[in-house]
């Protein structure tokens, strides 16, 4: 069954050209020209992945993402302009999985979508060498890859695809330091360029989510100038 991509942008030229490219690759595409119609459509009928512009009428991409994240961990890619660095960081903190800077090539968008969908599929599949059922348990942390669920001390933590992969990568080897390049490869795949600040923003958001249910959460440690590690329990 074809995977469904939602495109949300008030630029109809982008919607038309990108839709044609994705449909030629076998995807089903749904398009929206503003945030409000996209919110109604995606909550009623979720997609496998959404590509959101930031600046749109009726509801911008930031608010749309925030509302979607209250209900869904659907993979999201943001489209930003070159002068919107602050928006990129804010988008990542709100839960975007990736971002692409305008102007962009159709091929770049297609490759990022493929990579994110592969990561989403992989995070839900049972990993080789994992305990039966795809469960990873580290003290108070439980990750279920087949269901894409995360529990901390029995409390559910809703993680995006990227956040889930980052937590899993760190928790697989407690005490082992992972530098940002290693985390980028684990969360985004090799040969995908992502700025270091992207990983930092994702880690900050992960900590915030865990601290919402446990204000003493301190398992993900920062080693300044080196990277991150999951503290052994």
UniProtKB/TrEMBL annotation:
Q: Which GO terms describe its molecular function?
A: phosphorelay response regulator activity; transcription cis-regulatory region binding
Q: Which UniProt keywords apply?
A: DNA-binding, Phosphoprotein, Transcription, Transcription regulation, Two-component regulatory system
Membrane-spanning parts: none
Q: Which SUPFAM superfamilies match?
A: C-terminal effector domain of the bipartite response regulators, CheY-like
Q: Which domain of life is it from?
A: Bacteria
CDD domains xrefs: REC_OmpR_ChvI-like, trans_reg_C
Biological process, per Gene Ontology: regulation of DNA-templated transcription
- Give residue ranges for domain OmpR/PhoB-type: 133-232
Looking at the UniProt feature table, which residue ranges are given for the DNA-binding region?
133-232
**Cellular component, GO, one term:** protein-DNA complex
Task: Show which residues constitute the signal peptide.
Answer: none
Q: Where is the Response regulatory domain?
A: 4-117
Q: Which residues carry this modification: 4-aspartylphosphate?
A: 53
Keyword Metal-binding present in the record's keywords: the answer is no
Q: Does the keyword Nucleotide-binding apply?
A: no
- InterPro entries, per database record: CheY-like_superfamily, OmpR/PhoB-type_DNA-bd, Sig_transdc_resp-reg_C-effctor, Sig_transdc_resp-reg_receiver, WalR-like, WH-like_DNA-bd_sf
Give the Pfam families listed for this entry: Response_reg, Trans_reg_C
Q: What is this protein called?
A: Two-component system response regulator ChvI
Recorded source organism is Roseococcus suduntuyensis
At the highest ranks, the source species' classification is: Bacteria, Pseudomonadati, Pseudomonadota, Alphaproteobacteria, Acetobacterales
């Amino acid at each position: 069954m074809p995977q469904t991509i939602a495109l949300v942008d008030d630029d109809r030229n982008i919607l038309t050209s990108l839709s044609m490219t994705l449909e030629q690759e076998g995807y089903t595409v749904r398009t929206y020209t503003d945030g409000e119609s996209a919110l109604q459509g995606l909550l009623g009928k979720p997609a496998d992945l959404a590509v959101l512009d930031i600046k749109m009428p009726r509801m911008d991409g930031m608010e749309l993402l925030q509302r979607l994240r209250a209900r869904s961990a659907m993979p999201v890619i943001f489209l930003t302009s070159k002068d919107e660095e602050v928006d990129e960081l804010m988008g990542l903190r709100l839960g975007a999985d990736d971002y692409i800077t305008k102007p962009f090539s159709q091929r770049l968008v297609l490759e990022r979508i493929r990579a994110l969908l592969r990561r989403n599929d992989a995070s839900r599949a049972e990993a080789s060498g994992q305990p039966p059922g795809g469960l990873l348990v580290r003290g108070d942390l439980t990750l279920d890859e087949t269901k894409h669920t995360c529990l901390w001390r029995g409390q559910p933590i809703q993680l995006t695809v990227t956040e889930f992969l980052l937590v899993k990568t760190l928790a697989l080897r407690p005490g082992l330091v992972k530098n940002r390049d290693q985390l980028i490869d684990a969360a985004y795949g090799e040969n995908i360029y992502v700025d270091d600040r992207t990983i930092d923003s994702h880690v900050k958001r992960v900590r915030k989510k865990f601290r919402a249910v446990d204000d003493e959460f301190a398992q993900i440690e920062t080693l300044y100038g080196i990277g991150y590690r999951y503290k052994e329990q």
